[in-house]
Amino acid sequence: MGTPWPASAVHWPGHRAPWQTATMGDGTEAGGSKADGQQGPARDRKTLTKRQQALLYFNTTRRKFWAGAALVAVWFLLMVLLDDRPYLELIPNFVLYAGIPILWVLFTHGAGLIKPVPMPADIMRQDAPGRFSNQEEWESPLPPEEAFAALQELFTQTGVRTEVMDASLWVELGKEWQAAEWWHRDAAPHMKRRPSLLFFVQAADGGSRVTAFSVDRALGGLYDVVKLSDEMSATAVGLARKATGAPPQAKPPKGRRK
Questions:
Q1: What's the predicted TM-score (pTM) here?
Q2: CB–CB of 183/254 below 8 Å?
Q3: Is the C or the N end of the chain the one with fewer CB within 10 Å?
Q4: What is the 3-class SS of 105-161, one letter each residue?
Q5: Which of 7-16, 113-122, 202-211 has the lowest mean pLDDT?
């Protein structure tokens, strides 16, 4: 089992380490179960932005059901009220088709957007497997704060963008990034979106545990472009292993889409 990483080790202000407990506004303790069996987010609501609170409001099956039912009810009501007004007949379907993607964003905490909404680390880790095909985990001899700093320093390269989202690190790889001789490197000029990765660092016995999510399911395009994105992601994970002092793998990680 991992040992607690003290709050003093977190060097970005206003954030709480993901394994720290907090009491929610409804009396639920961090990680505690709500009345309908759903997992409660590990944050005091006072520390969350309005956007985060709105996304976390739909964190239970019951609330998701009633939100969907409300959308269908509004659509049906508009169909009835506007039935005899042909010039307004498109409004009900417009409301329905606009409401579906809005609910999708709310239900997934914005994790499926091109760039996800920064959320508490425990929520982002819960949502990450739905977006990324690959999940790799390794032990690092570095303390958590040093391992996290090593990842940040590694990705301060040309063509790479990073953002600290709570206690996780979001990484976007641009076509200008030249870290290896990739098989499909000639497809780089045709890349429209940046391959992304998400890293988490936890305290563990003897150091820390790093978890990397890669191979973004949201990416699409020509075959060579997709394969290049996967190769770049695999290279990034391999470099992250090396930067955090993890022993090398017998075989380099390969990005595989599921």
A1: 0.65
A2: no
A3: N
A4: HHHCCCCCCCCCCCCCHHHHHHHHHHHEEEEEEEEECCCHHHHHHHHHHHCCCCCEE
A5: 7-16
